[in-house]
Amino acid sequence: MADDREPPPLFDDEKPDKKEDEDDLFATPNEAPKEEIKDEPASLPTEPAQDKASEDLFAADDDLFGEAVKEVDTSKLRRKLTEDVDDLSPPLTPLEEPKPLIPTPADSSKAPPKKEPPKEKVKKYSQAKEPKPLIPTQADSSKAPKKDASENKNPPPKEEAKKKEDSQTKEAKPSKKEPASMAKEQPPLKPMKVSVDLHPPKPGEGEEVDLDSPETEGPSSPAKMEPDSDSSPLEAPPMAEVLPPAKPVIEEKPKPTPAPRKPSMEKSKEEIEEEESGDQFALDIKVHDPGKIGDGMGAYMSYKVTTQTSIPAFRRPSMTVTRRFSDFLGLHEKLSQKHTHIGRIVPPAPEKSVVGMTKIKMSKEDTSSTEFVEKRRALLERFLQRISLHPVLQMDPDFRDFLEQDELPRATSTSAVSGAGVLRLIKGVGDTFSKVTIKMDESDQWFEEKQNQVEALDQQLKKLHASVEALVTYRKELGISTSAFAKSTAMLSNSEEHTALSRALSQLAEVEEKIELVHLEQADNDFFLLSELLKDYIGIIQAIRVVFHERVKSFHNWQNAQQNLAKKREQEAKFKQTGKTDKIAQAQEEIREWEGKVEKGREDFEEISKTIRTEIRRFETNRVKDFRNIIIKYMETLMNSQQQLIKYWEGFLPEAKAIA
Amino acid sequence: MMDGLDDSPDLLAEDDNKPRTESVDLTKDDTLSIDISDALSERDRVKFTVHTKTTLPDFRESEFSVVRQHEEFIWLHDRFVENEEYGGYIIPPAPPRPDFDASREKLQKLGEGEGTMTKEEFTKMKQELEAEYLATFKKTVAMHEVFLQRLAAHPAFRKDTNFRVFLEYDQDLSVRLKNKKEKLGWFIKSMSQSVDEVLLANQKDADEFFEQEKGFLVEYHNRIAQSTKCADRMTKMHKSVADSYIKLSTGLGSLATCENTELDKVFNKVSECFEKSRKLEARVSSDEDLKLSDTLRYYLRDTSAAKDLLYRRTRALADYENANKDLDKARAKNRNVQQAEQAQQRACEKYEHLSELAKSELQDFKKRRVGAFRKNLVELAELEIKHAKALNQLYRNCIAQLKEEGRGAKAQPQ
Q1: Chain B residues within 8 A of A116 when measuring between CB atoms
Q2: Which residue of chain A is at minimal alpha-carbon distance from B382?
Q3: Which 3-state string (H, E, C) describes A583-617?
Q4: Which residues of B touch A187 (CB under 8 A)?
């Protein structure tokens, strides 16, 4: 009866002909992947028993974030999520430059009418046409209604067409209801935006990394690289020796298979060594049992750090120490002092949070502070794990002390208000200043490209991070509103006089309560898996920037030395010309000195460039691994949420049917 | 393990041809069937084509259509409310005014924020709003239709003259909006009713059934109002979650374009997956709205109509008792006894008539409510299961592809 209505196109461009698109959504679960695995045709993608490789993916996962997730799952946190909502960026925060899009030809016709969308147009409405959220295609809009009519069998196309005519003629309005004409009438309200990709993707960069830099630091470099580790001079040599024997020590837990990769790769020996040392030393670090020590403003949080290792350099295979937050900062400080200037990417330490800490100091058992502590605990754990995965940093005596020593000298320099803090601040300002002033004509194309890539990546990650934060906020809100609905439904069921309906409503309330938990749990997963992953990498990129800058500084030093050398030579030439022989000897002395400095500067620069190449390659390898693993894990949480929903609603269905 | 795959191609396809609110389960009766065959949205009004098919002799023709506007529906509703004859019936609640302001406002806001998002995001957001607008429009039409259908199904209302005129008269009924005076009058009337309700709150009711119903309806009304509000908020938040998938999807997409490792495939896959899942999540939200919120909303209004009925009955009871007192007084003074007797007689009849009708109406109301809730809750559960299965499948496929791809990438030398 009501089937001959026609929908009022809010805009003319909405055409329900995207069907094919949707149809193949689930149609090809097997096909696509199959093509990719020619060597393993036996295993289907959805085989319940996943094969080795995928298991390994998860194993690697567990190393990094498994603990964090497990911790989060505990329900005690669930209800506490709300508090921090305001910390998150608001939905729809303006993002940076629009990203590269391929403007479709259809764009011009569907340029958005900004004001009074449906008002002046007469709308048609049809029961048969569904309000599909469709991507308007450029299909001729005038054709579309017909197409639609034939798609939906309910109204015979003719009849529909007639109906439309009828109503149109009946109306005898100036407004033509033909969508096509509307398209023309509606002026595009904003000029089309042609977005330009500032950072065009550089294909094939990945391979380049491996090919053009076989000159990585050999196994001896760790020792060489730590001339200033004076705190434990004895440790350095053994470390280098330790490398080979440690290799066979295979960890207890499965690691992301280096095995299949190794033989196929034709990398330099150094590279393999380096990667192996990263992969095969078992250093399993957990941060747990956060506790508040003391009261009032002097209070601080302490964490237990438990390490299990097969690295012989450690005195015991397993140890637990208690560390406070500033110790972590201190560790970061020490590591970056030692490693940053020679081009190593030191994983960023978590930021101090005055707000978060003050809350903890002030309140006894606050929900938001529990949330805060858990976030921070996970963050610290990832920080240590990232260090432990680094072949050089994991061997750093300071890192080992941090994991091993019962007592650490108090890290004083990390306090924000201490003298060291001020110094750091000044240095930071100086760095920023020099970043602006020191320019370097990049002669090395590899670096230029990498820098551009890293910048582009940073921008995209930040944008995505903001989106994920918004998602977390919304999902939490959804959980909260679901809970409110559950409560109100329970009330309603109380006053419903019909017994069966009352029962069904109270069941519905129970289901919604469970769903609330599903939403909140998912919001946790959104946050701890996706959002934190992005945030971590935004931090690491910052560290990469610093390293890049160190290279620029090193280049600058070298250039300065060269300039000075040139000056000295000029001077010497002058002396020779003017016959001031007495000064020539001194000048020559100076020249020799500066020659040495130039040589040192060149060496330093080459060294840092080399190290950075290695570091970037490592960064990219890890990033691929990290993202892949965590994204898969995250998708699995999404899937699990849906499975729970299925279960709950299937439980409810018979209750609803029982209403009589 | 691939359960639910058989129908997977259709999982995203449109499910129900009638995504309308069906808050009332109306038994189909061929003698008078009404539907809204067409609706046109103009600048600030909606024109409904009301199509009637009937075998009743009261009508001149067996099939005809007229064009009506929302105001005319309201006019019709008011005629029923004002007619004392119908005092014993629950007057079907009037349809809500077509309100697309929210959609328009959002669209405008979107237009303003255009510069802050990518073209792709903007297009998708716009589509979402269009879909939302369309859904609102359909719902509005459905509410108007349900109003007429309930009138048509009612044994007393269907014979009403005004109703017949509304259906048959092919000209403009030239109802205008209430002018200021009328509005004021209406306001005073509703005020006095509320005051009266308070005054009558202490009215003793001999009839236990009504006493109980009254208590029930008052409480029920409050709670269903709360539930409706919460359900609305819930569906709205669900929509926001679905919409935030848009940004996630485009964000991952553009991340893939600047990616220099094999991660671009991962990002593209996940981006694609979110694009699909946001459609499904949006569907979940709109189905919840349709099946849950709308049912609640309709019975919120129906409960209110039932409360009005009870008020009228209590009023009649009070009148009856007053008439009794008057009669007693008149008898004591032996003056105007006959007059008083007649008045008392009339009040008594009115009261009894009202009570009788009200009883069966309230029972009908309960039956109607239970039926509608059953139907919609079952459908809600089925749709939720369906969508969750679709999403589950979607994620499952995506994970399988990611793993497969990962294996492929590992097998290849870098």
Answers
A1: 104, 108
A2: A653
A3: HHHHHHHHHHHHHHHHHHHHHHHHHHHHHHHHHHH
A4: none
Residue at token pair 């079907």: B92
CA separation for the pair A374, A386 (Å, rounded): 18
Residue B159 Cα, gap to closest chain A Cα (Å): 22
Judged by CB atoms closer than 8 Å, whether chains meet at A171 and B145 is answered as no
Tokens matching residue B163: 């109703």
Chain-centre distance for alpha carbon A620 = 13
Write out pLDDT tens, residues B61-102.
888 889 888 888 888 898 888 888 888 888 999 888 887 777
Single pTM value for the model:
0.68
How confident is the model over A198-234, as pLDDT tens digits?
Answer: 343 343 333 333 333 333 333 333 333 333 333 333 3
B40/A475 touch (CB, cutoff 8 Å), yes or no: no
Give the containing element (helix H, strand E) for B37: strand B32-41
List pLDDT tens digits, range A16-72: 444 444 444 444 444 434 444 344 444 444 444 444 444 444 444 434 443 443 443
CB contact under 8 A, B408 and A36: yes
Interface predicted TM-score (ipTM): 0.84
Query: CB–CB of A48 and B1 under 8 A?
Result: yes
Q: What is the DSSP string of B289-357?
A: IIIIIHHHHHHHHHHHHHHHHHHHHHHHHHHHHHHHHHHHHHHHHTSSHHHHHHHHHHHHHHHHHHHHH
Using the beta-carbon criterion (under 8 Å), do A14 and B130 form an inter-chain contact? yes
User: How many angstroms separate the CA atoms of B226 and B205, rounded?
Assistant: 28
Cα→Cα distances A575→A562, A580, A589, B137, Å:
20, 5, 13, 94
> Which chain A residues are within 8 Å of B111, Cβ to Cβ?
112-115, 189-190
Facing residue for A25 by CB, picked from B116, B145, B394? B394
